[in-house]
């Protein structure tokens, strides 16, 4: 697919290009190119980018191959070494907490799959210290959510935010709830869906039957199988505009694993995500040189995937944090358009129709007895207009 070479990443900063080279090149290549790679680098900006993109642990291990003396300031190596050690302790701590949670859930006949964190670091990188994680994400069957929540509370966790809901819209509009441990400060996200709705996705039993067992702990803990992991990570990364390079590097690492690409394509098409999988492969191929066969390029990396990949370069050219409370208006508008462009026609239809489903704000504006909540459906357009005229959210 020759068009893949038309994806322009030349406008990335020198510092960003150095980070990519450190992630991409072999140790021998880094040694031979060290002087060229480090010429004119703003090392403070390099550090800022390394932390923003969550790749600083790998920067620490790779910079030694381009450190020819004066090229890499000692303060850069010192900062990265310090943060790498802190991250290693963090990942080991999370591993221990994951094992505790798994033991409790298993003893209470609750199945769970870990979605990210140390298990993914071990599976994709072979070393938990090379990937960052600040919390634990786990997935349970939605029918077990209430029991899982009770177990978390018994373990000393408290639910952080109460999800407002009317007519059980929480089951598909949202996909997780957040719990904090009152003593350790650890955060756990309990998912009952892989992604926020609306839209279809594999149910828990399917994912459980295709699960992989981690080699990280003595206590059996499980994560998604490689095909489901690709589906999950690509949708997650795309939803965040690939604004963290680490998410894309996960995809690059996953392409090195044993993945049944035929099954992956079937999975992506079934859940209207082929364009997102293609976007991820285009970006991974162009930026990291991922080894993707010509057959898979023809099947997934089409013109639409190329277009979506070009849209994502915007997030790499600018250091964007989509979790900022005060997101610049131009960034917010761009991201809103990008999210809509990622959807298939089926997904766009469901997304549009979802606005006709009552919102919790409707119940706040016009409180009705629970037995009359179905009336929010015909009232929905009027309540929406009422909120707009009153300048309510």
CATH fold group of the domain at 109-224: Beta Polymerase, domain 2
First-residue to last-residue Cα separation: 46 Å
- Low-confidence parts, pLDDT < 50 over ≥5 residues? none
The share of residues in helices is 40-55%
Q: Examine the secondary-structure arrangement and name the CATH architecture of the domain at 109-224.
A: 2-Layer Sandwich
Going across the biggest sheet, name each strand in turn. 1-2-5-4-3
Query: What's the story with the biggest beta sheet?
Result: 5 strands, mixed
Summarize model confidence as the mean pLDDT: 91
The secondary-structure element order is HHHHHEHEHEHEEHEEHHHHHHHHHH
Strands, count: 7
Tell me the radius of gyration. 22 Å
User: What's the tally of helices?
Assistant: 19
CATH class of the domain at 109-224 reads Alpha Beta
């Amino acid at each position: 697919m020759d068009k893949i070479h038309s994806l322009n990443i030349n406008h990335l900063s020198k510092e960003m290009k150095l980070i990519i080279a450190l992630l991409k090149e072999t140790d021998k290549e880094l040694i031979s190119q060290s002087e060229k790679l480090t010429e004119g680098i703003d090392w403070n900006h390099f550090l800022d980018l390394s932390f923003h993109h969550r790749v600083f642990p790998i920067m620490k291990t790779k910079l030694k191959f381009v450190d020819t003396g004066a090229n890499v300031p000692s303060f850069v190596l010192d900062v990265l070494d310090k943060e790498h050690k802190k991250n290693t302790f963090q990942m080991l701590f999370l591993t221990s907490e994951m094992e505790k949670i798994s033991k409790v859930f298993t003893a209470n006949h609750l199945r769970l799959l870990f979605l990210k964190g140390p298990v993914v670091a071990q599976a994709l990188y072979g070393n938990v210290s090379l990937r960052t994680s600040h919390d634990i994400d786990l997935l349970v069957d939605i029918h077990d959510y209430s029991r899982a929540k009770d177990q978390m509370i018994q373990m000393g966790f408290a639910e952080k935010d109460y999800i407002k809901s009317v007519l059980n819209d929480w089951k598909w509009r949202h996909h997780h709830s957040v719990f904090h441990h009152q003593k350790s400060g650890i955060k756990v996200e309990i998912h009952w869906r892989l992604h926020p709705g609306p839209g279809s996705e594999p149910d828990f039993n399917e994912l459980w039957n295709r699960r992989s067992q981690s080699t990280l702990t003595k206590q059996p803990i499980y994560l998604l199988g490689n095909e489901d992991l690709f589906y999950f990570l690509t949708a997650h990364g795309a939803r965040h505009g690939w604004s963290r390079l680490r998410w894309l590097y996960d995809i690059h690492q996953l392409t090195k694993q044993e993945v049944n690409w035929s099954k992956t394509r079937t999975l992506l098409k079934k859940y209207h995500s082929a364009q997102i999988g293609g976007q991820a492969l285009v970006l991974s191929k162009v930026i990291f040189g991922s080894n993707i066969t010509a057959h898979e390029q023809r099947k997934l990396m089409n013109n639409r995937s190329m277009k979506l990949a070009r849209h994502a370069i915007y997030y790499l050219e600018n250091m964007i944090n989509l979790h900022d409370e005060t997101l610049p208006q131009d960034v917010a508008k761009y991201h809103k358009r990008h999210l809509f462009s990622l959807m298939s026609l089926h997904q766009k239809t469901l997304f549009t129709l979802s606005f006709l489903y009552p919102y919790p704000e409707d119940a706040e504006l016009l409180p009705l007895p629970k037995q009359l909540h179905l009336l929010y459906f015909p009232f929905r357009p009027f309540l929406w207009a009422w909120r707009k005229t009153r300048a309510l959210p």
